[in-house]
Structure formats: C-alpha cells, structure tokens
Amino acid sequence: MTAELPPDAAPSATDPVALLRLLQTVAVAANEADTVEEALRTCLDAVCALTGWPVGHAYLRQGDADDLAPAGVWHLDGGGRFEPFRAATERTPVPLGQGLVGRVAGSGEPAWAEDVRADGTFLRAAAAADVGLRAGFAFPIRVAREAVGVLEFYADRAVPPEPALLDVMAQIGTQVGRVVERTRAQEAVRRSEEKFAGIVAVSADAVVSVDEEQRIVLFNQGAEQIFGWTADEIIGQRLETLLPQRFRAGHERQVRGFGEGPVTARRMGERGQVHGLRKNGEVFPADASISKLDLGGTRLYTAVVRDVTERRRAEEALARQAEELGRSNAELEQFAYVASHDLQEPLRMVASYTQLLARRYRGRLDDDADEFIGYAVDGVTRMQALINDLLAYSRVGRREITVEPVDLEALLVRVLVHLGPAIEEAGGTVTHDALPTVQGDAGQLGQLLQNLVGNAVKFHGDDPPRAHVGAERGDGEWRLRVADNGIGIDPEFQDRIWVIFQRLHSRAEHPGTGIGLAICKKIVERHGGRIWLDSAPGRGSTFHFTLPDRKPA
Ligand code: ADP
Q1: Facing residues of 304 across strands?
Q2: pTM of the predicted model, to two decimals?
Q3: 514 lines ligand 1 (CB under 6 A)
Q4: In what order do the strands lie in the sheet with 466-473?
Q5: Which of 446, 383, 382 is nearest to 416 (CA)?
Q6: Are residues 453 and 430 in contact, defined by beta-carbon separation less than 8 angstroms?
C-alpha cells in the first residue's frame, strides 16, 4: 500500500497540521501494513514528501544480532543521482555508538547533523559529499524500549535542527515499531505452523481431519500410506469411506457424542478395538485418538490413526507360544507325575524283596552274592529317592497352592527338628534372624527351607557347617537368605544347579538327586518371588529369595 500525503498538506517540515497528517499517515500504515517493508516504505515516502528531503533509508536489526543492517528499503529522488550513496551505505557497517546512525542505535534517541561533512564521525562523509548530501537526521524504530531499527534522511543542503520534527519522528519510530513487533509475532506463528504442518505431513501415523459434516479436509502422507488413498482422491469424501461397514453407524454416533461433550481429546477404542478400511477393501486394527478444534466458526475433528496390524500379529504369536509352552509344560509335569507315581508301586516291591534277600541270605551264599545284593539294595534305595523327589517336583507344579499366613520362624524350627540328625552328624549349627509371617503355602515353604538349609549343612568343607537364615523387609516384599560357610559354587556352574537332576558333585562326595533346587525355584516362582545365589568356591554360598509382602494372586 502506498500513502500519499493529502494534497492539502503543505510540505513544510514545521507546520503543525502537516506534522499531524504525517503522524496519521504513518499510524494508518502501521495498522494496515502486511509487512514491515511496506510500513517502512510508506513512512520513508511520507517523511520525504513532508520535508522535501530527497533521500530516506531504513536499517533493521537482523534476528538476535546487535548490529544494524540496511533493510533494502529506500526513498531516492533525483533519478539515480544518489545511487553511489546507496551503494556506499550498503557496504558500510554500522558500529554501535559511532556515526549518525550508530549513535541513534546506541542511545535510542533521534539525532540531527546540520552538515554530515562537518561531523567527524560520519562514516559515509566522502560518499555524501560526492553526491552533494549535507544535512541528515535519524531516529530509532522502537519496540518497547529497544531500538530494533533506524530511519535516516538526508537533504542536499545544510539544515539546522528542527526540534518539532524530531519530536514527531520519535513518535513515528514507535508506530513503525508496532509493525515490526506484529509482523515478527506473525512470522513466529507462521514458522511454528509450518513446522507443525511439516510434522503432520511426514508423520508415519495417519492424520485425518474432518469438518462437521464428517467430510475429509486433511489427509497426510501417513494416511495415504495406511489407507491407500491419495489426498487428492479422498479429500471432500465422507469419513465413513475409511471405516468398515459394520462400524460406520456406531462411529458417527460416537463422534457426535464426543463433539457435544466437554472433553477436547481422547483415545478411541476404549470399548473395543478400532478398525480402519483400506482402499483395497482390507480391514486393519488401529490405535486411534481424536481431538476437536473450533476454527473460524467451523468445528474440525482430527483423528490420529496408527496401523497396529504388525503389533497385533506379534502379540498373537507371543500369546500362542506362551500357550503352547504352558501346555507342553503341563504335559511334561503330568508325565513326570504319572511316571513317578506308577513307578513307585513296582519299585516298592523290588525294594522290599531285595531287602528281604539281603536280610535272609547275607552270609549264606558266597561273598560275591553278598556284594551284588548290596548293590541292588543301594540302587533301589537311590531310585526310590529319585522317584520321591520327582514326584515332589511335579506336585509343586500341579497342586493349587493354598495361601495362608505362614509363620516362617515356627516353620524353620520344625524344619530344624526334621534335619536334626543330619545337622548333628555333621557337627553343624544353624542360626536365624527373627523371621516374618508371610502369605504362602505352608507345605511348600517348609520344603523350600528344608532344601536350602539341608544343602547348607550338606555341602560343607573342612570346617563344621554353620548356616544362617536371615530376613529383611524390602519394597513390597520380604528378602530372605540362607547363608553357609560351605564349599561354594563356581559362578560358571551357577546356572546349572536350578535344572532338574543337575548336580556338581559325585554321589560319593555328597549324596543327592539334583532335584532340590529345581523344586526351590518352582516354589518361589509360584509364590511370585525370585531366587538367586551369591557364591564362590571356598567362600560359602548365600541363597537369596523374595516373597511378596501381600497375598499372591
Ligand atoms: P542335591 O542337593 O540333591 O544334589 P540340589 O538341586 O539341591 O540337589 O543342588 C544341586 C547342586 O547344587 C548340588 O549337587 C550342589 O552341587 C550344588 N549346591 C546346592 N546347594 C549348595 C550349597 N549350599 N553349597 C554348595 N553347593 C551347593
């Protein structure tokens, strides 16, 4: 927009009416200008028209820099005569506080030079002299207290300062400052909108906006990928094009309900899986959220949709695997149970008859026979122990656990009575902290303590075994431990010991079946806890386990 000084304004720089008109012209330009450049140009033209000075120019501060730079906006009369001055201006930097413009930028106050050639600090004095410029004045463009730019004007004669003009210029500087401020704010908004629009455009999620009639008004690249429609094809169509037939009515109702409700954004599909429909007719599961926005009198709904086909597939595969694993575990347990249970009966028969043979015929056949019968009795006894342990192991998994308050201290005392002969034989001592009452299955927890304390006593070195049962409260759980001064376990083998039948020693060194710790692990896990150990050869072992400090589900 251009603003001519009204024809009735006399071009006198000191006429109060003319000054007022100038102020009005600039105020209107400040309100209406779309760009800073436009406002600057109007202002330069109006001031030059009023004063009759041939040269006007604007500097602006660039971004966050302190320095001023020519804004490229000029008023130049004289048909090219002042071009060399323009060129000199555009290559001369403006040091803050120096020269006419630098002083204005530094102080924030208008300044006047009656003749720039006499002003020793004027940096473009030679260029001004060459084209015959003499008087100059400059004033700041202000935003709040800050000078964000400077306007400068030059005459081709010496002119003494005109205070009235300078006063008005100070006000003009503030008016132009408003334009700078407003356009900078608009620029910031535009940049953030562009950035946002950029994010939406490239988002891998589908972003689909519809108007009140549910007509699609925005369809980003993600939506094109997921739904298979191009934005050009789909914009203007109704949203139901993207929904499987059976969800259309319900969806319309839901969006209407959401539109009327107070919430401005929510996740969709709280009442069931959301589905989308691709162009090729394929229905896919989706995660979606919806938001509403009132924009210039119309309401827009925006849905962000993520195709979760792959995730669903992976979840289903995982669930299938877990189910298969559960089934094969159950089958294995069933097998172990049946096998060990059914083996017990014939084994009992073999055991009783070999024992009978041993009792009746020891010393009555020859020495070899005695030895063979001894082996048979030994083997049968071992097999019975194995089968009993296997049965115990499979029972831990099969039985429902009965959860009740279990006083671990009382339980330990009973376990120690049971282990009494073994402890005594090894010359061992077992001590304990005050132990808590926990929620669990008394039978299983008793077995757990018995196996751990039994091992602590059994796997001793040269020193008589010392074992300690400790307890401390953790975060929502009890942390228990059974520590011993025994032979310890090499970290290399520590994973193995939890596996059924895995043993690290020969039967001659330490008798056992290798099932105890597998049972312990199962019991702790069935109670919702964890079990692990801390041990090194020759340094003893500490078996830690946790039990939730609440009723297990
Ligand atoms: P078992 O005691 O019948 O051999 P477990 O399952 O209880 O079977 O233990 C497996 C193996 O772990 C043992 O054979 C032994 O090598 C090792 N082990 C268990 N407890 C201890 C312990 N307190 N100190 C050293 N080694 C241990």
Answers
A1: 207, 289
A2: 0.50
A3: yes
A4: 429-432, 466-473, 477-484, 541-548, 531-535
A5: 446
A6: yes
**Which tens digits make up the pLDDT trace of 403-418?**
899 999 999 999 999 9
- C-alpha span between 480 and 440 (Å, rounded): 14
Output the CA 523–ligand 1 centroid distance in Å. Answer: 16
Atom of ligand 1 minimally distant from the CA of 513 = 3
312-397 matches 16-189 in CATH topology: no
Q: Which residue has the tokens 């320095």?
A: 67
* Burial of 17 per CB tally in 10 Å (0-12, 13-18, 19+): exposed
Ligand 1 in contact with 512 (CB < 6 A)?
A: yes
Nearest to 502 by CA among 520, 486, 515: 515
Has residue 399 got a pLDDT over 80? no
CB 550 within 8 Å of CB 476:
yes
Kindly give the number of the ligand 1 atom that is closest to the alpha carbon of 482.
Answer: 23
Strand 111-113 relative to strand 68-76, pairing = unpaired
Q: Of 380, 386, 340, nearest to 356 (Cα)?
A: 380
Mean pLDDT of all residues in the chain? 86
Band of the pLDDT at 271, cuts 50, 70, 90?
low
Third-level CATH fold of 203-307: Beta-Lactamase (3.30.450)
Q: State whether the beta carbon of 386 lies less than 6 angstroms from ligand 1.
A: no
The contacts of residue 22 (CB under 8 Å, 6+ apart) are 5, 9, 46, 47, 50, 168, 172
- Write out the CATH class of domain 312-397: mainly alpha
Q: How far apart (Å, rounded) are the C-alpha atoms in residues 232 and 164?
A: 61
Which CATH fold would you assign to the domain 401-548? Heat Shock Protein 90 (3.30.565)
